Amino acid sequence: MPDKEKNQLAGEFPFVPQQVRAQQKRHALIESGRCLFIKNGYSQTTAKDIAANAGVAIGTFYRYFSDKRQLLRSLFEEQLEMLIPPEPSWVHGDPEILLAALLEKHYKRLDEIGIHRVLPELLPKDPELSEILIEARRKLHSKFLSSLRQIEEMGLTWKDLDLDTVAWTVLMIVENGPQKTEYSDNEINYAEIAKVICRIVFPPEILVRLQNKEG
């Protein structure tokens, strides 16, 4: 199998639409599946439900997807990048303000997509999907770590903290931010989350210096 096919989440489709109208039908099916997976759960959603909600015949569904799992993985293929937290910029402005803005944009985008809500149901049942997300997290961790090492070379990080652990901690905080409301009556405060992360990354005097430099 060519490398390109190995990297595809959903594999080869029975039919790949080229015409605009056909692409619109396929997109409508994917969007229908996304809405129903969120509303009813993956297990309780059928291909027939997805087709009916999209306003197409069940035969149209099977023209583009072999089953609902293939549709789901195609959905993740399209939206995986939007599910992954953004890589922060540490020194091009006030780190807390920049990070808070990034977090707000990311969490609002997650809420609009909504598909992350079905992951707890899906991952235990789909090892391949689980591995895809794990690999995406590995890559993001590697990017976080690389950016931390760059500012370490500038003398901006804690000297007694392991940067690999710092990168992992930051990633865990960012990924789990949307779950805060499950354990607290308070809404997500992006500035407070950014403040905690920056306190982990920077010693106090360095953080003040960066903020004053911006000011």
UniProtKB/TrEMBL annotation:
DNA-binding region: 46-65
Keyword Transmembrane among UniProt keywords: no
Signal sequence coordinates: none
HTH tetR-type domain span: 23-83
Domain of life, per lineage: Bacteria
Keyword DNA-binding: yes
Gene Ontology terms, MF aspect: DNA binding
Keywords carried by this UniProt record: DNA-binding, Repressor
Name of the protein this chain belongs to: HTH tetR-type domain-containing protein
Taxonomic source organism: Pseudoneobacillus rhizosphaerae
